[in-house]
Amino acid sequence: MKNKMKLSVLLVALVGSLLVGLAHPASAATAGSWNTQVIDPNALGSVYITTQANVRRSPSSPDDSRIARYRVNFARAGTYDLYARLMYSTGANQANMFFSTNLGSEDNWVGVNTRNLSDEKFVWVNLTERDNQFDVRSPGTQQFSIASGRRGMRIDAFAFAPSGGSFTDAQLDGAVAGNGQTSGLIGFQAEYAAAFGSDTISDEGLKLKENLTGHLLELRAQLLRHIPEIDQARVAAWQASIKAEEEFAKKAASTAAAVARMKSAEGRLRSLEETLKLGPRTLEDAQDAVTQARARGEDDPELESAVRNAERLLSLRERDVRGIERNIERAKKDLEESKTKLPSAIREADAARQAHQRAMAATWAAMDALGTRELVQSNRLDRMLAEYTIISRASPRRLAKFFEQSPEHPQLIQQLFADTDLMVNMLVADGPNGENYGEAMKIYNAIQQASPRANEGVFQRLALAVSLGHALPITRRDHARSTGSVSDDEPEDEEDASENTAFGSRDASKYIDPVQRYLNYEKWYLAGELDAGFKDLCAWSLVMVVDGRDCDEAVAWGREMLKILRPDTIPTDGNTSRYIDFLDHEIAYSANLVSEDRPELMLMQNILANGGICGRRAFFGRFLLRSFGVPTTARSEPGHATLAHWHPEGWSVKLGGNWGPGNRGRYARMNRRRSSPYGVDLNFLASTQARQDVASFVNVKRAQWISALVGEDRQAGFYTTSGETSFEDLGFWNALALHEQRRIIADLDAKRVSTPSPAFTPTQAPVATGRITVDSRGIITIPSAATSYPTESTARIFRHRQPDLILFMNDLAGNTRLHSSRAAGSNDRFTYTFDAPVAGRYLMVARVATPRWDRQLIASANGGAAVKMPLPYTKGLWEFSRPVEIDLRAGRNELTFHGSRMTIDHFSLAPMR
Fold this sequence. Notes:
This protein is an alpha+beta fold.
């Protein structure tokens, strides 16, 4: 305890000493792609550099952020070889780097790959043997430059040596330690660059970095004294129990899946039978379309094309109906078979589940025998572990730069390290984007000052989430690009400012204001605008609510638009997947209209109007979810963009295959800034499941912090894109963390099995309702749902599904309105029957919501001539149309309309005087 207090006091003193005497540059520089400090006891100086870039080509510009520059002092002129101490990470595909052979300039890049290097340890390699030597024409300080290539390369040291010499590893190591000049060697650590990209650091900052590194290493040494020696015989027993459990797990999973298929057989049959009921109407509509096409007349130039298209549509509908009939016959056979086999299948599944539970219990017992459980369950090392983890992830270099930017910055870090709970909560939430702990603290403090609510409950978690998610400034997206379109394969959520960018040094108008984002979500929550599940979300989940690029005005528009245009997709039962149903209803799966995107509109307004495939639909789905406070993140199957989102019963995936390997045999992966470190989607899913037990999940993170402390590679889960990771690849502490996570998930699953789900209660579908009224001035008001035909929602068969045609839906206030879907055609009409007080000409207007600028209604009174009623482009919000004239007779009238893609509130007909 005394040593712990000594380290804490030392850190406070160290940070406190930085409050005075620092240089404060006018603006912060941009960080390069090198991760400038990774702590590893096997590296010289316990530090190496690596990169997350993945570029095969050499730099083409001095502004390339992949470049790192060093100041090297040559004592004498001559020809020099360049040595580097390298290692590449397991699984890297010929990870490479480049170096410039011209000192002081960067016009001759030479590539280095890892084809013949070790993936197990750092080794010295002569990069210039036989060619590419450095010609130093005069003594003095020269600039030497390297650049990153593919990810995976690790470098801890460089050394220049006189050409033609032969040098041992010990001599090269000694040169890096500072005693190599006597043999002509010049050595230096790779992380000691004067600049990474345009990320420069002053001489005072380098000294500050050295002090922080010294503190970090002392903290590490102190922590290692608390880490127990692991009995390898017990580790072997644990590994054996895991191996033995695998077959039981496979058997339990396969038998449970078989039971689930049998239990769903009746539901599949009933669903098909309900769909087939739409067959007659579907075929009738298609036949009517053929009849209308043939009635165009021989002189119509489009007759042949219209008939051909209508007949093709009829053929497709007939094929749909026949396909459903075949599927019904198969479903009946499946149902009969399931009734026979289900009892024995349930018994087999129960036996397999119990056998797997016994095997898991053996694994947990072997884990407990390791003697580590007390350590990962105890919070006694949390302060030191959190300090160590934060400094090492942020890196002493970047913390030193942050201290230099403002005299208030060291105080922010001091405040962070004085609050153990805050440090732990940040790390459990996976830390700030870009590991920018300094910027996260700036935002967190600013939010605390802006709102008195931000220090407790959901608001404190929200404040923390905003600070973590916006630690890299997020590029604000107000409108579509000037080209008028966004490609489906564009990375929609990845355009952030660079890692070391301070907010004050950039044009703030280009970025989302994090404080305002917090205040808006606080306001929306208090107003009851957000999903009911928002109040219970942890900070980790909330980050995936607040880190979207769409401006807050767009978010507010998205929420209001959905309430008006399709309120039936807003869940009232907690089923957050309902929000995404909007995509199938309203976002056309087609790229044909993307070229019509308008640059003055918000991107999401363009997607609503013009649709898109794959990416654009996933973008819009995530946008809607964030608008209502539902966590969401990007997920990509091989060759396909999908999304993942929070659901009260567990995270779900939409617009693609289920979790895990797709139909191409490869694993889906996570690909947004918060979720991409998990790699394979099953790793991300496991984390979401274990995080439901907040108290136990911190044990997983402690084991991972210890894993990093002892030098193991970070591994977020068991799976890679090519398959399951072997136990040995994980490292002991990382494997322990992931199996602790498995135990949490298994315990939660057992509790769910013993707690049956509530019975499903079907809701009553809205029907035609409302009363047509006439006021004292003779103005007729027709609520949109007051139809005489149809009186219930209509649908038809399309590709074995049931798209809505004319739909009655309730909004959140209980009002029923009519929606004519994008699938509605000219035969999908709706009619109102009412009495007019006087005959004559009336001015008719409609209060409507339209998602596109080319919508119109075709009206006909009492079978008379059609009247075109152009509708305004409302972006999905309410507006009134321009009045059109229509003739009514005194007494009973029938007013019929058809049109698609609109929600109607009411019609108003005023007699013309």
